[in-house]
């Protein structure tokens, strides 16, 4: 069967468009010419949609596309429950229901909630994945490590689930004991389709860095059974989210123990507000330097302990490779063993990041687990609190 990214499908669409356009030229009857021209629009439109799909590496199969669009299957994030979390959440799988407990103990629990930042005043949607161990008696007293996952732009937090497939990959790794349990936190990093804040505090605008690196971790630590921000927290992202991860980790090294940068960049661009480019720093050179990982890293004192970095890029994208290698060279005096993964034959696409996520989780989660400490098993006395 011809799949969405198959070259044969693109050739077929071009051929259909060519035949219909030829009919508009040779057909004498006006009605047929108009009909052929209208029909030619269909393969042209489908070609454009599939070209975007192929460029970003979204859907590999028709089944994956249908499952997401119809909200079927385990990866359909739009069908997850909305949960109002509070510090005293105690029942069921946090939504007040015990009916999904057995499933949660096998495959974890994906939910959507809303978090308001105490210092930033920002309110955003956040997706949270709780691993199966969160609901198992042996882990009832364990405060789980956390990985904060930042999406790219354009993009949404649920892209981590529906396109990158992070929860499915994590479940598989956990089942084969290739990774250690952690809570995944996937926030809306920008607050709108035409907004790009790069996880920065916009001068005179949204305080995005404060929300993502200060408010959100503090609130998650209050309402879920997770470690406090520190060595048992990590931040990771792809594309613009990769820049976010690098910058957040260096700006707040005491709040994160590890950082994963997938095809990220290390010098900030202009922000985008309602489609218009805006300087995040309003001309303040000192602010810009503090939020430029390539400049910030060598300027940190030798005594500053920075998070452990995991870097990756698609080997076919020269710009991404050059950026990753340059930052890696700056990083080596502090972290000689920092991994740099270059995925052969891939570029700046979702396909690349989908392939890299298992390696990142395999590297990162055991280190987070050591920072969080071993679970203290206690005799079960009911369902897990918080």
Task: Tag the structure with descriptive keywords.
single chain; 386 residues; alpha/beta; two-stranded antiparallel ribbon; 12 helices; 15% strand; disordered C terminus
Per DSSP E runs of 2 or more residues, the count of β-strands stands at 10
Low-pLDDT runs of 5+ residues are 63-78, 88-92, 377-386
Rg, rounded, reads: 23 Å
Report mean pLDDT, rounded to a whole number.
Answer: 84
General form: globular
Q: List the strand order in the largest sheet.
A: 1-2-4-3-5-6-9-10
Terminal CA distance reads 47 Å
The main sheet comes to: 8 strands, mixed
Give the strand content. Answer: 15-25%
* Sequence of secondary-structure elements: HHHHEEEHHEHEHEEEHHEHEH
Task: Note down, in words, how this protein is organized.
The structure is a single chain. The relative contact order is 0.12. This protein has twelve helices and ten strands. With 386 residues, the protein is of the alpha/beta class. It has helices at residues 7-26, 30-56, 62-69, 101-107, 159-162, 166-175, 208-223, 240-251, 285-290, 293-299, 318-331, 350-372; strands spanning 109-116, 123-130, 146-150, 183-187, 230-238, 256-262, 271-273, 276-278, 308-314, 340-343. The model is unreliable at 63-78, 88-92 and 377-386 (pLDDT under 50). An eight-stranded mixed sheet has the order 1-2-4-3-5-6-9-10, with helices on both faces. Strands 7-8 form a two-stranded antiparallel sheet. Strand 7 (271-273) and strand 8 (276-278) form a beta hairpin. Helix 1 (7-26) runs antiparallel to helix 2, helix 6 (166-175) crosses helix 12 (350-372) and helix 10 runs parallel beside helix 11.
């Amino acid at each position: 069967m011809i799949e969405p990214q198959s070259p044969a499908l693109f050739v077929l669409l071009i051929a259909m468009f060519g035949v219909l356009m030829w009919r508009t030229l040779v057909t004498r009857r006006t009605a047929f010419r108009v009909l052929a021209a209208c029909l030619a629009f269909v393969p042209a439109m489908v070609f454009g949609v599939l070209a975007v799909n192929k460029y970003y590496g979204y859907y590999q199969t028709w089944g994956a596309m249908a499952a997401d669009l119809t909200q079927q299957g385990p990866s359909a994030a739009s069908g997850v429950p909305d949960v109002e979390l509070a510090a005293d959440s105690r029942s069921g799988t946090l939504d007040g229901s015990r009916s999904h407990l057995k499933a949660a103990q096998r495959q974890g629990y994906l939910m959507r909630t809303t978090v308001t930042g105490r210092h930033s005043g920002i309110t955003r949607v956040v997706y949270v994945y709780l691993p199966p161990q969160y609901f198992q008696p042996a882990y009832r007293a364990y405060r789980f490590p956390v990985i904060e996952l930042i999406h790219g732009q354009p993009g949404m937090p649920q892209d981590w689930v529906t396109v990158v497939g992070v929860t499915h990959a994590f479940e598989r790794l956990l089942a084969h004991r290739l990774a250690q349990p952690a809570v995944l936190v996937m926030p809306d990093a920008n607050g709108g389709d035409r907004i790009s804040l790069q996880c920065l505090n916009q001068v005179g605008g949204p305080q995005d860095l404060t929300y993502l690196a200060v408010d959100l971790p503090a609130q998650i630590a209050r309402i879920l059974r997770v470690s406090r921000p520190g060595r048992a927290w990590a931040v990771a992202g792809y594309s613009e989210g990769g820049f976010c991860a690098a910058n957040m980790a260096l700006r707040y090294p005491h709040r994160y123990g590890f950082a994963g940068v997938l095809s990220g960049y290390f010098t900030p661009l202009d922000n985008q507000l309602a489609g218009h480019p805006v300087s995040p720093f309003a001309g303040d050179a000192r602010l810009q330097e503090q939020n430029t990982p390539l400049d910030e890293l060598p300027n940190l004192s030798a005594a500053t302990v920075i998070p452990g970095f995991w870097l990756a890029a698609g080997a076919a994208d020269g710009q991404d490779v050059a950026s990753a290698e340059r930052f890696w060279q700056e990083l080596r005096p502090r972290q000689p063993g920092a991994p740099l993964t270059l995925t052969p034959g891939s570029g700046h696409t979702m396909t690349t990041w989908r392939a890299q996520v298992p390696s990142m989780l395999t590297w990162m989660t055991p280190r987070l687990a050591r920072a969080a400490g071993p679970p203290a098993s206690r005799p079960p006395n009911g369902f897990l609190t918080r």
